[in-house]
Amino acid sequence: MSSQTIPNGLMQRAYLTPNRVAVETPQTSLTFQELHKRVQKVAQQLSFNGVKQDDTIALYMKNRVEFIEILHAVSYIGARLLLVNTRLTNEEINYQLTDANVSLLIADETFLMREFQSSITQLTLPALKSSPEAETGFQKTWNLEETFTIMYTSGTTGHPKGVLQTYGNHWWSSVGSALNLGLNEKDCWLIAVPLFHISGLSILMRSVFYGMKIILEERFEARAVNEAIENKGVTIISVVTSMLSNMLDELGERKYPHTFRCMLLGGGPAPLTILEACVNKEIPVYQTYGMTETSSQFVTLSPEDSLRKLGSAGKPLFPCAMKIVDEKGNETSEAGEIIVKGPNVTKGYLNKPEATEKALQQGWFYTGDIGKVDEEGFLYVLDRRSDLIISGGENVYPAEIENILLKHPAVKEAGVTGVADEKWGQVPAACIVTKEDVSDEELSLHMQQFLAKYKLPKYFVRVEELPRTASNKIIRRKLSSFIQKGS
Ligand code: ATP
Ligand code: MG
Question: What does this protein do (predicted)?
């Protein structure tokens, strides 16, 4: 079988534009050539520690330059890298390490106290960095079909699944992104999202393909991020809603400079209130829809449509196709499941042939999300199929109700789920975290202004906090236990 190859990303970049800055952190700055030299060394140190071609090793590390070095070193050896979410519990991590048949785990020194799967060799970063170097061949080309990274989904709908991401997935994701957002030699992408997520990892891949500088923050901090946009030449940043809302608060009356050209907003639904606030502040927000399985963004709203189509996630990236299908799999103009096809879509889930077969049918990936495409082809993501509430035969989307709840000044966080009801089958119920006291009557009055009667929550339950995944997404299937307790 002849497979398509491209040159190894970082090697090619270090050859093409060695002196451009690859990455900047508060502590250090490295050119692509310097990064390449370090990566060669780390690859040889990994080799000393027994890492060979086709092995799977795991990385448990916060955002730091060494993360980037190890990622590329793994590609120099031709091994695979499992990226572990550092916020997971030991049990969750052990599941992933076993499932992915990991031979070596590299961990930050700060995480030493955790007890991982004892049968797996563990290496701390200082131990790796002080290892001798052993000879190893370097993989000079990337086979686009080959798996490079493994990343587990966030587990919002059930047990996380290991997503196989190939070199080709990353390459095409980067190409698709550039064809959509454009590319400028002055571009500088700020990373304040975790590198172990596809949102962060995809920026590292773009950096080598584009020859683009990144600024790496260890963690998100609104003030530092705004400062970097205002004074350090950042032109693009990837954010999720909660980050954006903190940035807006911190920004106050100030405005971003005109050189700042793109706020890529994804990861979950974006409340209209926040999008409107961005319009008022002239912030160029590109709403985007994607998932671990599509190696980052798949559908993105271009700036020329951002005002006209506020709330839409946009149209697919150039190399990608998208359809909405009904229960029988036929294309529909109504709301239905979003299915996608393209070279950035995963080839499947690790060790899960059944889940893979279910998700990938005739080349189309079934996202499990419900959306609607308008007459001009713009996608509106409504909700996850598994969270859909059917009340008296009508489809009710929790995200729509949560959005309206969040418009009320007393509501800080909201999660909506369906509960059984004798008359209607199911009715919506809301769990809320409040900023101040508010009565059910007042909330109902507020909701009635915006929503049809069948969408109004029948119960409001006050909770201390909402159940969330390690990526901070609400786990709606866990809300029902609060409602039973509270009502
Ligand atoms: P799991 O598949 O294990 O339940 P997950 O789907 O939450 O986890 P991710 O791959 O991190 O894991 O998240 C992708 C999902 O996030 C999408 O399928 C979608 O439900 C949601 N999402 C992403 N972008 C948007 C968006 N713009 N609007 C609404 N939802 C979004
Ligand atoms: Mg998912």
Answer: Converts 2-succinylbenzoate (OSB) to 2-succinylbenzoyl-CoA (OSB-CoA).
